[in-house]
Amino acid sequence: MSILKSIAAAAALAAAATITAASPSLAGDYNGDFMIKAGVTGVLPNSEFDGINLNGVPVPGLGGDIAEVDDSWVPSLTLTYFVNKNIGVELFCCFAQHGIEGKGPLAGVELGETMIFPPILSLQYHFDGIKGIKPYVGAGVQYIHFFDESPEAIGTSLDIDSAFGFSLQGGFDVELGGGLYAGADVRYTWLDSEATIGLGGGNQLTTDFDLDPLLVSAHVGYRFNLFNRRTAMEPLK
Predict the structure, then answer these.
(1) Which of 62, 104, 116, 171 has an alpha carbon within 20 to 30 A of 182's alpha carbon?
(2) In the prediction, which pLDDT does 145 show?
(3) How far apart are CA 28 and CA 177, in angstroms?
(4) For the chain, which residues score pLDDT lower than 70?
C-alpha cells in the first residue's frame, strides 16, 4: 500500500517536472484550467448476488446472496478540466483485478476472477478554498467493462456483462505550493450486471448481482493553465 502511494507521488512529481520543462507556460498555477492527479484507489465492491439459475431455472438451495466480489487496491489517474471558477469535468480511470468467492452454501468456493476497466465521468462543483483546502462534490456516470474473466471451481467459461451506473463523489484538495496538491476523495456507484458460467454441452449457470462499488482514493495532483485562456486577473479559484 505504502509502496503504491510512493510510486503515485513520484509519478505525479515527475509529470509536473516534465510538463514544466517542456513548456514554461504550463508551470504550476492554482488558477489553471487543467489538473492531473495520480494516486492509489481502493475498489471496494458492496456486492449482492441473487441466487443461481441453471438454464433459466432457479437451483434449489442456491437462492439469495451466494457470493461476493473481493476488494482491490490499484494505481489510478484523474484528469480534470475547469470550465469556470467552480465547475469542473473530471475523468477517472484505473484497472483492477477482482476475485469472486462463494458464501452461504457456497462458502469457501472460488468461483472465478475478472479484470475490470471502470472509468467515471463526473460533473463537479468546487467550493471556494479555505486556507488552501478546497472541497468538492460531483455526480456522473461510471462504465465498468469486465474482461479476462476466468472460472475456477465451477464451469468452463465465465462471462460478465459490462454495465453503466450512477456515481456520486466527494473530496478535497490541499495546496502544497507550485501548483501541486495532495488530496483524497470517495465515490459510490449503483450498478448491476449479470454473470454467466458455461458448463459445457449447452448448459449454463446465470446470476444477477449488484456490484455497487465504493472507491476510496488518495492522490497528488498538478494544476496548470493548459489552454492559456485565463490570467492572474481572472482566477478560477
Answers:
(1) 116
(2) 97
(3) 8
(4) 1-28, 228-237
Residue 97: beta bridge partners? 115
Q: pLDDT at position 32, please?
A: 85
How far is the first Cα of the chain from the last one, in angstroms, to the nearest whole number?
32
In 3D space, the residue among 234, 237, 228 whose CA is nearest the CA of residue 24 turns out to be 228
Q: Which one-letter DSSP state was computed for residue 104? A: G
Exposed e or buried b per residue across 130-161, where buried means at least 16 C-beta atoms within 10 angstroms of its C-beta: eeeebbbebebebbbebeebebeebbeebebe
How much is the pLDDT for 24? 52
Torsion of CA 14, 81, 134, 27, to 10 degrees: 40
Cα 132 to the chain's mean position, in Å?
26
Q: What is the pLDDT of residue 27?
A: 67
Nearest partner of 221 among 84, 126, 118, judged by Cα: 126
**What's residue 235's pLDDT?**
45
Unique residue bearing C-alpha cell 465498468: 144
Strand partners, 235: none
Please name the residue that has the C-alpha cell 473481493: 70
Spacing of C-alpha 227 from chain mean position = 27
Q: What is the pLDDT of residue 6?
A: 46
14 sits in which H/E element: helix 2-22
In this prediction the pTM is 0.83
Residue 167, CA distances (Å) to 51, 143, 191 in order? 26, 10, 9
d(CA 185, CA 188): 10
> Which pLDDT does position 232 carry in this prediction?
41
